[in-house]
Amino acid sequence: MNLVNKLYNWLTGPVSISRLANESWSFLKAETSVRYFYYILLYLSFINFQWWDNVANRQNFDAIWPIFWGNGLGYETTATVVQFLHLATAFLAAIFFRHRWARFLAFLGMSQFHALESSFGQPTHQWYLFVFVSLLFIFIPDVWKKGKEVSIGAKKNLLLVFWSAQAITFLSYSMSGLGKFLGAYYQYSIGQIHGFSPHAFAYQIADWLPKIQADPVLGSFIINHPLVGWPFYAGIHFVMFFALWAAFRPSLQKLWAFSLILFHVGTYVTMDISFAPPIILLILLFMNSPFLRPETTVKDTVRDFPVVGWLLAKIT
Amino acid sequence: MSYRFLKYFFAIILLVYFVGGLASRNSAKGELYPFFSWFLFDQVPNEKQNFTMRIISHGGQRHEPPLEFSQATDIFRTINQSATQYFYVIQDLGYGILNGNDRQIENARERLEKIFLGMPATYEILQVRYDPVQYWRTKEFKELKIIGVYESGK
């Protein structure tokens, strides 16, 4: 038991919520980020609403279970109801975010929109994280009571919910990294071009582009110059795999968020994959992290760095 | 809700998210909404064997040579859908043909032919073997076999 406690303290020490709940800057950052989550959700719901033309003519609508009611109504009616619901609930949440019912409605609208987008044979992956974070944010306590001092208990719960949102976001990237490592090991073991091969990125792009019928700005360049893309492609395995570790080490959070944003930009310019919503989430959750102490130095970041930091700690 | 309760509750959510995501890989579609493994592009496509489609004629216009799936951008732009969604339908149809599974063929054809928006079309399904980089450069398959020719709606 002692060992488990030691391990738990080693892992969670830098994100000690009990200590941070006493710091006003930490609370303020979390509260502000949550507030902006709902403001930005409103903006995104409007962007989705604006692209009304994009829903026309779509074929093979097959409602998945969260919008089971849509199969009886048909695609056009379901899409109309969902788009209005998404916009209306996001509007309510942007105004009444301090109320749990408004945050629940925002989750409902978001998840219905995601379900609609996912009802054409394949789930849409880019909205998953917004659905899960809006689900977790339902559990935020009311920390906006006017004229009342916020209790330490409420501050602790807010920070805990916020950290869970950070964790589920980074966990998703770590799962992706795990898949890439397992895939690379498997392909290496059977003698195929694998994730760490110099030509891996070129093969991914060349296989993908005909499927989506696109010609992104750097796609051809990487296929013709595979060695240029190699360090980025191999490096992203590392960044993704250790993303969850960064959730426990606030000194790494900004760096990891920037790296993952760069990854999304990279997949867009080489593979035409637009994963814009997670970028906004990475900004909201990590650029103003309530767990990053103001006194954090570059030395702290190096010490917390996975593998490299561990090795340096052994040497020094 | 107490802090202690929430701590365990969120730990369980994260665990279920992780385990459920990995387990969903074994489902028919490789994911089970809302669980998803996030194993995207986890393997590098080496030399491949799969199925593709060529459109011989569409809306009264004959394509000479037949229009390969990867070039049929206008069709997918018209229906506001990603061609990737239909890439998997073509795979379903190809396997259905190879296995002689009439039900699978009928189902996949019904989904695929909706891209023509009710206009008459003739298309062929090919089994192909190719190296992705070589195909991208030359637009030539290493091996190509026509396994089915269909007219939409018939």
Radius of gyration of chain B: 20 Å
Distance between the termini of chain A: 30 Å
The order of strands across the largest sheet of chain B is 2-1-3-4
Helix content of chain B: 40-55%
Secondary-structure-derived class of chain B: alpha+beta
Give the SSE order of chain B as H and E letters: HEEHHHEHE
What is the first-to-last residue Cα distance of chain B? 61 Å
- Gross morphology of chain A is flat
User: For the report, how would you describe the main beta sheet of chain B?
Assistant: 4 strands, antiparallel
Anisotropy-based shape of chain B: elongated
| Proportion in helices of chain A | over 70%
Main beta-sheet annotation of chain A: none
A few lines on this structure:
The complex is a heterodimer of chains A (316) and B (154). With 316 residues, chain A is mostly helical.
Explain what you see.
The complex is a heterodimer of chains A (316) and B (154). Chain A is mainly α and 316 residues long. Chain A is built from 16 helices and no strands. Chain A has helices at residues 2-12, 17-20, 24-50, 70-73, 75-96, 100-117, 128-136, 152-189, 200-212, 219-224, 226-241, 243-248, 250-271, 276-286, 298-304, 308-315. In chain A, helix 5 runs antiparallel to helix 6 (100-117) and helix 15 (298-304) crosses helix 16 (308-315). The model of chain A has no long low-confidence stretch (mean pLDDT 93). Chain B is α+β, with helices and mostly antiparallel strands and 154 residues long. Chain B has 5 helices and 4 strands; from the N terminus they run αββαααβαβ. A 4-stranded antiparallel β-sheet of chain B has the order 2-1-3-4. In chain B, strand 1 and strand 2 (61-68) form a beta hairpin. Chain B is elongated and about 70 Å long. The N and C termini of chain B lie far apart (61 Å). The model of chain B has no long low-confidence stretch (mean pLDDT 92). The chains are: A mainly alpha (316), B alpha+beta (154). At the A-B interface, helix 7, helix 8 and helix 9 of A face helix 1, helix 2, helix 3 and helix 5 of B.
